[in-house]
């Protein structure tokens, strides 16, 4: 897990001016009745609350007539419509409608009605067709249809209703008069539900694997009309209304209907399209209201603003070749070296599209096979580095639109670079405009407050046992892979999900049904997520950041281990033990390292228990831990030499590699999200620039040799791919070992973690290879080293050593790693 800083999001937007009050005293049937004064109309000319700023609505002038103040975009009329003293043509025969009951009227106007479509729109009644419209601020409403123009009598409070002498419901529009202008709009309440029964059934079962196509805001054609369907899951709500800049953040005229027992609310708004800001106004069980961003929003405002945005992708991908071949080789048998990036700070100020012009070229030049983005899902506080997510389906708007993000991924794919993304299903922040107690009661989080509260980060955990919540998260994993062509998900903080007692004191947690501390719901969720992603998205890899010895993190879900659990189903797991032990070793003064030799060799005892990634991530170069080069003891030369030797050891060790940005050129300062890597260290005018450029040149060579040497990756998960030459050379601080490809072709790696040259250092080697040569030496002058090495061909000598019949006599450079291959 990364930063533990609170999300820091501003408070939610207050109730918009003019919003209808909660239900009050009983209502009569005339305008101006006691207890419910008509809401004020917006300023003349259509002044609109943007709703985008979390600090509260501001107003900006809008051209007169472009919108219906209580509705979607409409066609502006000319004159304000017929005079009130003159009956419009075709309106004769309109009879007054039976008034709504006080209860229905109060609930409808108060935003607490589950079935507004049952009250509004057109309904056959005895003697004709009852048509009722809710248009706050309107002075009059006229129904327009072929051969029909009928003005509806006012019922007060923005309600207009009448019984038309019709037997069937025509295709009609509404001419709404606001005094200084009129608009012609479709009636949202004449449409059938735009969400199908199959979608609701799959969601109820927790099996809607493309949930983003069912919930949220989706532009579509419905009953021959183009508009936007809004859907949201809020099973505890008394009522839900859509608010946005299209209705001046007053949802009185836009109550949604409840779709049975599903807990889903729906409303189709004709004429509404891409780019509109919106939220959901929810009436809680206690009658209070809250305005919430859409949990399924695919685009958001740029923080600190918090509104959701209606989005439709227009991107045309150009990575078909990449997508077709990315799964050709299993990832654990393929080269896999990762450059971890915090996008907002890699080059501060760059957009997704400007990043696409620089990042792929940089990563390709250094030879990394993949980039890994720290979380890109929307988050309110930049200091959280993205690990406190409020918009699980939206790339952060800080650097552009979702299509801009697609452009960046496409550019990386076309450069031959895979894209991994940090994914955070372990917790979410408590911001009162986001997921926390979304509909007035715990919904995404467990009901028990003690169980819901994450003990370390001040956040809330997900309720993995709730079907709909599990569906929300599983579909989210699929969403990033299918919609954005993400090649892998690194799942954050898995350990905190797996254990009920994670960071909790005795008595502060409740055992599972078997009396254990395992979170069975989280186990089932992770298994389902992995199985679903691997089934739907060929070539995608999932990676667990799991810091304990949980058995079977990368075992198949259907293979039950000794603990009685099936595997979690991940493809790879971060090797946190190797990271901790190896960094602890190299931070020691060389004179003391012999006493810690086992910390470097211990990893090979469990190296094949999982499919591992060796991570030197952002977490290891912040919060006082120091940058990688600064962890090394000694003077500046020794620090750089130790840094280079460590990278050479890491790239040769079984497992995949991950290196955080800035460490590829030995940045001495810790990373800070406010300014990113210290690129000035590579400026040619800087006196020490060659020191940093040399380390970066080494990283390039490590990746080049790595990709070309199957012995370094083909058998990463097979014990036959590794053999110690001498695992007990603690007095020398030397670590020599062999790596083997599937065809048994070898590579020797030997690291000298002492600051002294070791001459005539003998190592036993396989006897079938008569000669060897250096292919990499981290002490070369071009990397900033002293130039000690073994030029030319090294001939195997018939001197038994290390249990082998032949051996090599080498010169080991100080604080350096050598790689040798058969000549």
UniProtKB/TrEMBL annotation:
<dbReference type="InterPro" id="IPR044143">
    <property type="entry name" value="GlgB_N_E_set_prok"/>
</dbReference>
<dbReference type="InterPro" id="IPR013783">
    <property type="entry name" value="Ig-like_fold"/>
</dbReference>
<feature type="compositionally biased region" description="Pro residues">
    <location>
        <begin position="8"/>
        <end position="24"/>
    </location>
</feature>
<feature type="domain" description="Glycosyl hydrolase family 13 catalytic">
    <location>
        <begin position="340"/>
        <end position="700"/>
    </location>
</feature>
<comment type="pathway">
    <text>Glycan biosynthesis; glycogen biosynthesis.</text>
</comment>
<dbReference type="InterPro" id="IPR006047">
    <property type="entry name" value="GH13_cat_dom"/>
</dbReference>
<dbReference type="Pfam" id="PF22019">
    <property type="entry name" value="GlgB_N"/>
</dbReference>
<dbReference type="InterPro" id="IPR006407">
    <property type="entry name" value="GlgB"/>
</dbReference>
<feature type="region of interest" description="Disordered">
    <location>
        <begin position="1"/>
        <end position="119"/>
    </location>
</feature>
<keyword id="KW-0119">Carbohydrate metabolism</keyword>
<dbReference type="GO" id="GO:0003844">
    <property type="term" value="F:1,4-alpha-glucan branching enzyme activity"/>
</dbReference>
<dbReference type="Pfam" id="PF02922">
    <property type="entry name" value="CBM_48"/>
</dbReference>
<dbReference type="Pfam" id="PF00128">
    <property type="entry name" value="Alpha-amylase"/>
</dbReference>
<dbReference type="GO" id="GO:0005978">
    <property type="term" value="P:glycogen biosynthetic process"/>
</dbReference>
<keyword id="KW-0320">Glycogen biosynthesis</keyword>
<keyword id="KW-0808">Transferase</keyword>
<feature type="active site" description="Nucleophile">
    <location>
        <position position="492"/>
    </location>
</feature>
<dbReference type="InterPro" id="IPR004193">
    <property type="entry name" value="Glyco_hydro_13_N"/>
</dbReference>
<dbReference type="InterPro" id="IPR014756">
    <property type="entry name" value="Ig_E-set"/>
</dbReference>
<dbReference type="InterPro" id="IPR037439">
    <property type="entry name" value="Branching_enzy"/>
</dbReference>
<dbReference type="InterPro" id="IPR017853">
    <property type="entry name" value="GH"/>
</dbReference>
<dbReference type="GO" id="GO:0004553">
    <property type="term" value="F:hydrolase activity, hydrolyzing O-glycosyl compounds"/>
</dbReference>
<dbReference type="InterPro" id="IPR013780">
    <property type="entry name" value="Glyco_hydro_b"/>
</dbReference>
<feature type="active site" description="Proton donor">
    <location>
        <position position="545"/>
    </location>
</feature>
<dbReference type="Pfam" id="PF02806">
    <property type="entry name" value="Alpha-amylase_C"/>
</dbReference>
<comment type="function">
    <text>Catalyzes the formation of the alpha-1,6-glucosidic linkages in glycogen by scission of a 1,4-alpha-linked oligosaccharide from growing alpha-1,4-glucan chains and the subsequent attachment of the oligosaccharide to the alpha-1,6 position.</text>
</comment>
<feature type="compositionally biased region" description="Low complexity">
    <location>
        <begin position="33"/>
        <end position="61"/>
    </location>
</feature>
<keyword id="KW-0328">Glycosyltransferase</keyword>
<dbReference type="InterPro" id="IPR006048">
    <property type="entry name" value="A-amylase/branching_C"/>
</dbReference>
<dbReference type="GO" id="GO:0005829">
    <property type="term" value="C:cytosol"/>
</dbReference>
<feature type="compositionally biased region" description="Basic and acidic residues">
    <location>
        <begin position="102"/>
        <end position="117"/>
    </location>
</feature>
<comment type="subunit">
    <text>Monomer.</text>
</comment>
<dbReference type="GO" id="GO:0043169">
    <property type="term" value="F:cation binding"/>
</dbReference>
<comment type="similarity">
    <text>Belongs to the glycosyl hydrolase 13 family. GlgB subfamily.</text>
</comment>
<keyword id="KW-0321">Glycogen metabolism</keyword>
<dbReference type="InterPro" id="IPR054169">
    <property type="entry name" value="GlgB_N"/>
</dbReference>
<protein>
    <recommendedName>
        <fullName>1,4-alpha-glucan branching enzyme GlgB</fullName>
        <ecNumber>2.4.1.18</ecNumber>
    </recommendedName>
</protein>
């Amino acid at each position: 897990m990364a930063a533990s800083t609170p999300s820091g999001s501003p408070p939610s937007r207050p109730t918009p001016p003019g919003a209808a009050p909660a239900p009050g005293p009983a209502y009569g049937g005339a305008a101006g009745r006691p207890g419910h004064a008509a809401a004020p109309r917006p300023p003349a000319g259509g002044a609109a609350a943007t709703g985008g700023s979390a600090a509260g609505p501001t107003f900006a002038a809008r051209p007169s007539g472009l919108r219906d103040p209580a509705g979607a975009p409409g066609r502006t009329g000319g004159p304000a419509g017929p005079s009130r003293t003159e009956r419009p043509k075709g309106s004769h025969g309109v009879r007054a409608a039976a008034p709504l009951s006080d209860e229905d009227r109060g609930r409808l106007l108060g935003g607490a009605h589950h079935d507004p479509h049952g009250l509004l729109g057109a309904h056959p009644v005895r003697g004709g067709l009852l048509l009722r419209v809710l248009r706050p601020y309107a002075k009059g409403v006229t129904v327009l249809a072929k051969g029909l123009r009928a003005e509806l009598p006012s019922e007060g409070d923005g309600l207009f209703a009448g019984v038309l002498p019709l037997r069937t419901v025509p295709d009609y529009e509404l001419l709404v008069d606001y005094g200084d202008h009129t608009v012609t709009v479709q009636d949202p309440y004449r449409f059938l539900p735009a969400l199908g029964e199959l979608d609701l059934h799959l969601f109820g079962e927790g099996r809607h694997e493309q949930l983003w196509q069912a919930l949220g805001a989706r532009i579509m054609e419905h009953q021959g009309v183009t508009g936007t369907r809004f859907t949201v899951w809020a099973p505890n709500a008394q009522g839900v209304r859509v608010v946005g800049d299209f209705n001046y953040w007053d949802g009185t005229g836009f109550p949604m209907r409840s779709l049975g027992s599903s807990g889903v609310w729906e409303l189709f708004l004709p004429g509404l399209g891409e780019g509109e800001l919106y939220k959901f106004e929810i009436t809680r069980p206690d009658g209070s209201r809250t305005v919430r961003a859409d949990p399924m929003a695919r685009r958001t405002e740029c923080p600190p603003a918090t509104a959701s945005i209606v989005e439709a992708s227009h991107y045309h991908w150009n990575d078909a070749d990449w997508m077709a071949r990315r799964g050709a080789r299993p990832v654990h048998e393929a080269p896999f070296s990762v450059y971890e990036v915090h996008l907002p700070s890699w080059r501060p100020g760059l957009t997704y599209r400007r990043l696409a012009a620089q990042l792929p070229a940089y990563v390709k030049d250094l030879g990394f096979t993949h980039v890994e983005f720290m979380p890109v899902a929307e988050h309110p506080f930049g200091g959280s580095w993205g690990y406190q997510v409020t918009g699980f389906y939206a790339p952060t708007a800080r650097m552009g639109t979702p299509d801009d993000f697609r452009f960046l991924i496409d550019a990386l794919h076309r450069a031959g670079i895979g894209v991994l993304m940090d994914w955070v299903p372990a917790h979410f922040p408590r911001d009162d405009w986001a997921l926390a107690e979304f509909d007035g009661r715990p919904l995404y989080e467990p009901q028990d407050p003690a169980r819901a509260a994450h003990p370390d980060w001040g956040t809330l955990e997900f309720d993995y046992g709730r079907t709909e919540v599990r569906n929300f998260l599983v579909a989210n994993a699929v969403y990033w892979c299918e919609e954005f062509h993400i090649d892998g998900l690194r799942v954050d903080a898995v350990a905190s999900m797996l254990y009920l007692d994670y960071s909790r004191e005795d008595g502060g947690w409740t055992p599972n049904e078997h009396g254990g501390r395992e979170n069975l719901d989280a186990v089932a969720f992770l298994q389902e997520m992995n199985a679903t992603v691997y089934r739907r998205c060929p070539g995608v890899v999932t990676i667990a950041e799991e810091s304990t010895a949980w058995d079977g993190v990368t075992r198949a879900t259907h293979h039950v281990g000794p603990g009685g659990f099936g595997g979690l189903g991940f493809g790879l797991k971060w090797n946190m033990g190797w990271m901790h032990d190896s960094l602890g070793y190299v931070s020691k003064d060389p004179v003391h390292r012999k006493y810690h030799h086992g910390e470097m060799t211990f990893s090979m005892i469990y190296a094949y228990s999982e499919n591992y990634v060796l991570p030197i991530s952002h977490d290891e170069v912040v919060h006082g831990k120091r940058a990688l080069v600064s962890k090394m003891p000694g003077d500046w030369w020794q620090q750089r030499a130790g840094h280079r030797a460590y990278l050479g050891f890491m790239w040769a060790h079984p497992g995949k590699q991950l290196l955080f940005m800035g460490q590829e050129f030995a940045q001495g300062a810790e990373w800070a999200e406010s300014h990113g890597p210290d690129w000035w260290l590579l400026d040619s005018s800087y006196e020490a620039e060659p020191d940093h450029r040399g380390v970066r040149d080494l990283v390039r060579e490590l990746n080049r040799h790595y990709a070309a040497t199957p012995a370094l990756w083909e058998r990463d998960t097979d014990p036959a791919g590794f053999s110690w030459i001498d695992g007990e050379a603690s007095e020398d601080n030397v670590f020599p070992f062999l790596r083997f490809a599937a065809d048994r072709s070898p590579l020797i790696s030997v690291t000298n973690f002492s600051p002294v040259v070791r001459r005539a250092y003998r190592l036993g080697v396989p006897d079938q290879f008569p000669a060897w040569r250096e292919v990499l030496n981290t002490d070369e002058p071009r990397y900033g080293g002293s130039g000690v090495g073994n030029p030319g061909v090294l001939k195997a000598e018939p001197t038994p050593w290390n249990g082998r019949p032949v051996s090599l006599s080498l010169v080991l450079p100080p604080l350096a790693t050598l790689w040798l291959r058969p000549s």
